[in-house]
Design brief:
mainly beta; NE0471 N-terminal domain-like; three-stranded antiparallel beta sheet; 2 helices
């Protein structure tokens, strides 16, 4: 039997929950909470844009429609990575 891969390989990542307090991101059997006060880009975003997360490399997450790039290190230690943009 031959197995043919169609399309590009993707790493597993998903948004598991959205609440009034933040977003939960599930990847590799780990779940991370992204509170809006630390990750304000998600607070007023459209739900479909929050769910459209990609993992181009292990531990690196990208929301194309929101132009947000985060790593596991940034999520675990947001105080070490001050916000670089102003929210309007």
């Amino acid at each position: 039997m031959n197995l043919l891969t169609v399309g590009k390989d993707t790493l597993d990542v998903e948004v598991s929950h959205i609440s009034t307090h933040g977003v939960w991101l599930l990847t590799e059997n780990q779940e991370f909470f992204l509170p809006y006060d630390e990750f304000p880009w998600f607070q007023d975003a459209k739900i479909r844009d929050i769910f459209a997360v990609e993992q181009p490399r292990r531990g690196h997450f990208y929301w194309r429609n929101l132009d947000v790039d985060l790593t596991i290190e940034m999520i675990k230690n947001p105080h070490r990575f001050p916000l670089r943009s102003q929210m309007s």
